[in-house]
């Protein structure tokens, strides 16, 4: 029996030790999964881990390779060849004279060079494609960092909403407890406590709803950062520091250069591409020159006498001149000309649209700033009114109806204030993106 007790204690001790170890490992893992991130750090992490950006970077590398492949077409091309032939003892009879046909090995090196207008334009087109791939990469990076910035702001705003709601809930719970105390001693009616209890329940629902909304924002942020769903994110930047209220006027007064916008840059490069494609269509009717040098060495695998008619060196040149293509070239030129004109129209329309968009976004930011200031003042006034009604209620000079009405107005004012913050930061982010500001 004693031995069984000793074994049981050993097993329990070992289990406790393993459990503690597992808990320690779990705590350690949780600590490893907690990330404290500033806005800049979150944006950089998203850029480093985003698959779309990785694919866009590969597109840039592929465009560079195609560019050099097009250039290489105009550079000398060298190839080597080897050939073995065996006529199986056959001998050629030339009117009584027999010529042996022994087996042989023929080796050679051929150097060729081709040049023409289409090849030169093809290299230029490849360069434009590389530039467009690079712009696409930068635009994708801008989209990712903008999304992260929007989510970061949304999380900070949602946290501020929760802080305001929790503060209101704490005040209402205090007033409810005070009212219930008065009801117990007969100094207040139960209906007064019931009215406050209804508002407390509504606030509790609002708190729970905002917690779920905040978790959705964090989940979206985890997705952008390629983090595990259980990873904890701690935002180190403060909302008031990121909003840059005092600096927003700088955005409104900053000159807008459409050439800094990635959308315009892509349209501009597309027009340049159309121009080069038109040139390529025209040059397809021009001559193409090709030249070559070939060195050959034939080695017979027999001592029999034979005739070697293969020259060791040979040079040549070919000039190709298109004469008649059944109007195919003309149709290609017309199609390329129409495509080029279409790209010019798109470029002009893009410039006009961006200028209009800049004016609208400046208006949106200015309007959002005015709304923010108005809602901030309204919330301050509503907060003072609620505090005053709360004091009067505590002293018996205000009814529960007045208290709940004042609380409802305060919640509405706080909600409008939060919406004004979101509108302001979103307007600021959109204008910064248009101006290509980091």
What does this structure look like?
This protein has one domain: Outer membrane efflux proteins (OEP) (Up-down Bundle), CATH 1.20.1600. The protein has ten helices and eight strands. It has 438 residues and is an alpha+beta fold. The model is unreliable at 1-32 (pLDDT under 50). The strands form three sheets. Strands 2-5-7-8 form a four-stranded antiparallel beta sheet. The protein has a two-stranded parallel sheet with strand order 1-6. Strands 3-4 form a two-stranded antiparallel ribbon.
H and E string: HEHHEEEEHHEHHHEEHH
Which CATH class applies here? Mainly Alpha
Q: How much of the residues is beta strand, in percent?
A: 5-15%
What is the count of helical runs? 10
Q: Based on CA inertia axes, which overall geometry fits?
A: elongated
Q: What is the averaged pLDDT score?
A: 85
Low-confidence residue ranges: 1-32
Report the span from N to C terminus.
Answer: 75 Å
Q: State the helicity in percent bands.
A: 55-70%
| Strands side by side in the biggest sheet | 2-5-7-8
Instruction: Give the total of beta strands.
Output: 8
- As an assembly, this protein is single chain
Tell me the name of the CATH homologous superfamily.
Outer membrane efflux proteins (OEP)
- In the CATH hierarchy, the architecture is Up-down Bundle
Stated plainly, the CATH topology is called: Outer membrane efflux proteins (OEP)
